[in-house]
Amino acid sequence: MTGKITYFNNERGFGFIADDESNQSVFVHISQITGTNGDYPAVGQRVVYETRETEKGTAAADVRFI
């Protein structure tokens, strides 16, 4: 799946991705973002990702910057 970061809180380590197909908001945690070289995602950053179901709903996994 592809999308873009719409919000990210660097201090708390989480944010949201707007999915390109559905435009739905998907939760993302910093622990699921790989290959960043220590950079935090910026609003508007394009990403490719998978999803997984958690007890709190759908969340992004294996997130990589495009």
What does this structure look like?
It is a single chain. The chain is mainly β and 66 residues long. It has no helices and six strands. The protein has strands at 2-9, 14-19, 25-29, 33-34, 46-54, 57-65. Strand 5 (46-54) and strand 6 form a beta hairpin. The termini are close together. The model has no long low-confidence stretch (mean pLDDT 95).
List the helices and strands and how they pair.
Layout: E1 2-9, E2 14-19, E3 25-29, E4 33-34, E5 46-54, E6 57-65
How many β-strands, per DSSP? 6
Sketch the topology as an H/E string, one letter per element.
Answer: EEEEEE
Shape assignment: globular
Biggest sheet: strands side by side, in what order?
3-2-1-5-6-4
Helix fraction bin: under 10%
* CATH architecture verdict: Beta Barrel
The overall pLDDT, averaged over residues, is 95
Overall number of domains: 1
Radius of gyration: 11 Å
How is the CATH topology named?
OB fold (Dihydrolipoamide Acetyltransferase, E2P)
Uncertain stretches: none
Give the distance, in angstroms, between the N- and C-terminal Cα atoms.
11 Å
CATH class: Mainly Beta
How many helices?
0
